[in-house]
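Lab notebook, design round three. We kept the backbone fixed and only want residue identities now. Task for the bench partner: fill in a sequence for the structure below.
Input structure tokens:
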């Protein structure tokens, strides 16, 4: 950090992001000078943009770089790890947590010491053991913090190893958890693989993306609770989460592994490089979910072409995010009946290759989408030059040339799940997924009596 070296710097912040800047500044622990651009430059005319820069932003930056150094923000003293913060009735606890912005708007399970200890009994790690300091507010991702938020979210103690695996995946720098508070409203989705699916009673059949099954629902809620309370991604009256409209938390998913094996396809966990029978937790960064996709017929090409036709639009619009980072892992959830027809003729890799070859967009249209969203300097040429995209994206200079929406067919992920009696699929445009293997998710130490989750 150049600021820590004493070199004057200034950050350009849109006026709508000032609260988020305060959160980041707090997490970095460094006072940062800023220059403010009023409003959103993407909707200003060239003349208006020039006026705002000259009259507002430039003077702000000049003062920031030449004036008195900014002072550190007033430090808010937070409770110590393991400290009892309140004793009271159920309603008093709810109200206190609500006022402190420690809830997601729903009632929470009070994280009493007994309940938290019941969670900690399902790991051999010490309560103070930390995975990493997480952005934006710079808190430790400790075992204690995981247990507390697990209790609050309504999880059972035996879910604890899954919760740890989720945060390990979230802490991976390649997952880019800091983007969870950006304007698109990225939402994490958990995918559980292995025998633990049945041990924890995760729903992988009809209604598998609905709230209602405790494991799926509370684990999904935990992810959002952790992002709020530890990372600091809160909507108003808090700050940190700038999702312009956003989306609700997604329940944890699981695969119908019996059906996948019966079809002769590798399971999702095996696709991720793990052995059959190994418990795996994967965390996806999802920007949307398509509408239900129905397809019919007894030929593989008919179903996969239907996927290509219907999801092409939504994937095409958002592909620029993957182009900019080289990370683009779309997730397809296919019911066992659909997967059964396809698997009679095609392997998963053949499905991936078909989608890769048939899902195209013109370079001009992809550039337009990127520039309309947030990247006025988007350029395929620069991305290829920087090694982020392969050379075929600039095979010619024709703006009407077709480029692949999917960067690499290996990035496409396929999950067999849902109602086996219906011909439905869903697609989730996702930028990145990280996984963490936990081969002994069901083990535990001695559990205190009268556990509650």
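Proposed sequence:
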């Amino acid at each position: 950090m150049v600021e820590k070296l004493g070199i004057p710097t200034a950050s350009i912040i849109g006026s709508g992001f000032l609260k988020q800047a305060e959160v980041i500044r707090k997490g970095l622990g460094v006072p940062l000078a800023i220059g403010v651009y009023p409003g959103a430059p993407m909707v200003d005319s060239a003349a208006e943009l020039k006026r705002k820069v000259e009259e507002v932003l430039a003077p702000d930056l000049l003062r920031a770089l030449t004036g008195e150094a900014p002072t550190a923000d007033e430090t808010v003293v937070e409770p110590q790890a393991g400290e009892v913060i309140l004793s009271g009735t159920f309603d008093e606890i709810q109200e206190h947590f609500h006022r402190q912005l420690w809830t997601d708007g729903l009632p929470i399970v009070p994280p009493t010491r007994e309940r938290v200890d019941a969670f900690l009994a399902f790991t051999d790690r010490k309560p103070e053991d930390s995975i990493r300091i997480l952005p934006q507010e710079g808190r430790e991702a400790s075992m204690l913090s995981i247990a507390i938020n697990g209790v609050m979210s309504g999880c059972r103690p035996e879910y604890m190893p899954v919760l740890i695996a989720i945060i390990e995946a979230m802490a991976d720098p390649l997952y880019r958890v800091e983007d969870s508070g950006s304007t698109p409203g990225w939402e994490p989705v958990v995918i559980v693989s292995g025998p633990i699916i049945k041990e924890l009673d995760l729903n992988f059949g009809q209604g598998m993306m609905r709230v209602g099954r405790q494991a799926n629902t509370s684990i999904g809620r935990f992810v959002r609770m952790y992002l709020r309370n530890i990372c600091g991604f809160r909507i108003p009256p808090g700050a940190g989460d700038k999702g312009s409209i956003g989306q609700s938390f997604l329940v944890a998913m699981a695969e119908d592994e019996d059906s996948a094996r019966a079809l002769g396809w590798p399971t999702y966990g095996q696709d991720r490089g793990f052995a059959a029978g190994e418990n795996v937790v994967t965390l996806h960064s999802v920007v949307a979910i398509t509408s239900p996709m129905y397809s019919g017929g007894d030929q593989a090409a008919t179903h996969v072409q239907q996927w290509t036709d219907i999801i092409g639009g939504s994937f095409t619009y958002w592909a620029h995010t993957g182009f900019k980072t080289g990370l683009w892992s779309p997730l397809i959830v296919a019911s066992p009946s659909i997967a059964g027809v396809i698997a009679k003729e095609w392997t998963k890799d053949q499905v991936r290759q078909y989608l890769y070859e048939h899902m195209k967009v013109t370079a001009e249209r992809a550039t337009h989408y990127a520039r309309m969203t947030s990247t006025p300097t988007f350029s395929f040429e620069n991305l290829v030059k920087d090694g982020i995209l392969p050379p075929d994206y600039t095979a010619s200079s024709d703006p009407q040339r077709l480029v692949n929406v999917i960067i690499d067919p290996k990035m496409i992920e396929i999950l067999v799940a849902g109602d086996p009696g219906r011909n439905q699929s869903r697609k989730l445009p996702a930028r990145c997924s990280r996984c963490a293997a936990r081969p002994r998710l069901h083990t535990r130490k001695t559990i205190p009596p009268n556990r509650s989750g």
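Keep this in mind before ordering anything: Confidence is low (pLDDT under 50) at residues 441-453.
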